[in-house]
Amino acid sequence: MPAPDLATAELTLTGRITTASNATFLGSIGDVVVVYKPIAGESPLWDFPHGTLAHREVAAYLVSQVLGWDVVPQTWLRDGPMGEGMVQRWQEQDPAQSAVDLVATDHMPETGWKHVLKGRDENGRMVALVHEDSPALRRMAVFDIVVNNADRKGDHILAMTDGHRHGVDHGLTFHRDHKLRTVLWGWLGDALTAEERDGIDRVSDGLHGGLGRNLADLLSAEEIASLAARCARLRLAGRFPAPSGEMSAVPWPLF
């Protein structure tokens, strides 16, 4: 039996993801399980143009593809039961793994993890936000800087059984102004690797070719120019940046 055409075959809804801030549904196209976020279900935001979050999710996938790191699962725009929206292949994460965690400060892992910040939990106990120190998560942190991700929560990182890490929920990206809010600050000041520099260069080059043409259908010219400028700054600095500006450097809630 031939595989369904993911762009045109019937999209059937099977459930709703109620923890999402915008209308988000679980569905299927043939035997392919997907997430569907209709544009009509996007909540208005004060700092992002209304009705653009699905386009930003697709733009994030296109940049991920050019980087070559498979950060974002396959994502595309198409019609659905509630109109046009973003559709993304569902990823079954490993429940036994967690790339980001809150741990008691007296039980901090000694190796393999990066410390981000300390605070108190709802019971007044001192806890620390930590994330794993892995090449896959480093690449996601670089991706977030490039796309200006304003909402990298811990639960937006899917730990896969084979050790790969997928990032999801990229509606709050590509703003023309600095908006980086992430739980992945563990490499602050570290030098970029050759692989990471090469990935940034691929995006910069792609903006003058196919990537730039594809993004023109999804983002404003000013947002694409800001993307190019971020790549240039990051490449020139050659290291992970520190938080800047007056806004919070981490999203809330953290998960």
Structural write-up:
This protein has helices spanning 53-67, 135-147, 194-206, 210-215, 221-237; strands spanning 12-16, 25-29, 32-38, 75-78, 85-89, 100-104, 113-120, 126-132, 157-159, 165-167. The mean pLDDT is 95. The protein contains five helices and ten strands, in the order E-E-E-H-E-E-E-E-E-H-E-E-H-H-H. By secondary structure, it is of the alpha+beta class. The protein folds into two domains: 12-95 and 134-237, no CATH class; 100-130, no CATH class. The radius of gyration is 18 Å and the shape is globular. The strands form three sheets. A five-stranded antiparallel β-sheet has the order 1-2-3-5-4, covered by helices on one side. A three-stranded antiparallel β-sheet has the order 6-8-7, with no helix packed on it. Helix content is 25%, strand content 20%. Helix 3 (194-206) runs antiparallel to helix 5 (221-237). Strand 4 (75-78) and strand 5 form a beta hairpin.
List the SSEs and their pairings.
Elements: E1 12-16, E2 25-29, E3 32-38, H1 53-67, E4 75-78, E5 85-89, E6 100-104, E7 113-120, E8 126-132, H2 135-147, E9 157-159, E10 165-167, H3 194-206, H4 210-215, H5 221-237
Antiparallel strand pairs: 1-2, 2-3, 3-5, 4-5, 6-8, 7-8, 9-10
Helix pairs in contact: 3-5
